Amino acid sequence: SIAFAGAVQAADYPSRPISLVVPFAAGGPTDVVARTLGVEMGRVLGQPIVVENKLGVGGTVAANYVSNAKPDGYTFFIHHNGMATATALYSNLKYDPLKSFEYIGEVVDVPMTVLGSKDFPPNNMQEFIEYAKKNGDKINLANAGPGAVSQLCGSLLQQALGVKFTTIPYQGTAPAMSALLGKQVDVLCDQTTQTIPQIAAKGVKFYGVTTLNRIQKLPDAPTLDEQGLKGFEVKVWHGIYAPKGTPADALAKFNGALKTALKSPAFTEKMAALGAEIVSEERQTPESLQKWVKSEIEKWTPILKAEGMSVN
Ligand code: MLT
Questions:
Q1: Which PANTHER family would you find in this protein's record (predicted)?
Q2: What predicted TM-score, i.e. pTM, was given to this entire model?
Q3: Would you give the DSSP letter of residue 172?
Q4: What confidence score (pLDDT) does residue 87 get?
Q5: In terms of C-beta distances under 8 Å and separation of at least 24 residues, what long-range contacts does 222-226 make, across chains too?
Q6: Is the Cβ atom of 171 under 6 angstroms away from ligand 1?
Q7: Ligand 1 touching residue 172 (CB < 6 A)
Q8: Which of 84, 193, 195, 208 is nearest to 148 (CA)?
Q9: CB of 144 closer than 6 A to ligand 1?
Q10: Strands in 117-219 per DSSP E
Q11: 20, 30, 178: which to mutate for ligand 1, most atoms within 8 A of CB?
Q12: Is 154 in the pocket of ligand 1 (CB under 6 A)?
C-alpha cells in the first residue's frame, strides 16, 4: 500500500547524500557555518551533507533554486537575514519567503565588523567618520549585493554617516575579502565568521563591531554605537529551510540532526572561535523560525523602502 511504502521510505531516510545549498561564495561566512554544521549533521544522519554554492543576485538565485527543487528531503537551504530583506529589495522575486519553503530552525547569530584595507587612510572610527564625510563616493565599499548582510550593514553605515560610497558587488564576501586584502577596495562590512582570522592576522584595518554591546571574542573592540553612531546595530541570524512539500518525517529528522549538531563540541568550539553564538533551543524549531522570518519582513520592509534601497 502507499502508506506502507511511505513508512519504509521514512525508516530508510536518508539513504543518499543530502544537498545543503549556500547562497554565497565558498570560503565565506555563510559557507563556513554550512560546512562546519554539515559535517556534524552528516555524522548524526549517517549520510554526508554536500554543500552546494549557488551564487548570484544577493542570495536570491539560491532561494529561487531551492523553492523549485524536488521536495524529497534531499535538498535543504541555509540563509541569513536576506531571506527576510529580499522581498523589500526586489519587486520581481519568483519565490515567497513565507510560502515557498518549509522551516527547520535557526542556527547561529553572528556579529558584523567594519573593516578597511591596509591602504585606506583612517586608523580608527573617529578618523573613518571624518574621512568618509570628506571623501564620500571616492571610497569603494565591497559587498555581496542587495539581500546580502554586507550590503545591509554598508547601507546603514552610509545612512548613519550621511554619505554615499561607491559600491562594488561580489558574489559573496569571500571574494570581497580577497579584494580588500588585495587593496582593490577600501571598506567591507562582514561577519566575524570570516573576519576574526583576518583581524587576528592584521591584514586589515578594523573599526568596530556592529552589535550594541561588545562581543566576548573581541572584548577590546569598541562598538560603532559607542563611537558616535548611536543605536547602530546589525546582527546576522542564520536559518535552515527546505522546499515546500518536503515530507514531514524528513523535516523532523533534519531538525533532530540540527539540534544534536548544535550541541556538538566540534561545532560549538569553532563557532565560539569565530564570534558566532548558537541560538537558544527554543529558536532551533520550525515554528520559531517561521515567526521570526515574518517579524523580520515586517520590521525591515518599511525601513528598506523608506531608504530607497530597492533595486527594481
Ligand atoms: C557570505 O557568505 O558571503 C556573506 O554572508 C554574504 C553577505 O554579506 O550576506
A1: BLR1237 PROTEIN, TRICARBOXYLATE-BINDING PROTEIN
A2: 0.95
A3: S
A4: 92
A5: 222/125, 224/114, 224/125, 224/157, 224/160
A6: no
A7: yes
A8: 84
A9: yes
A10: 140-143, 166-169, 187-191, 205-209
A11: 30
A12: no
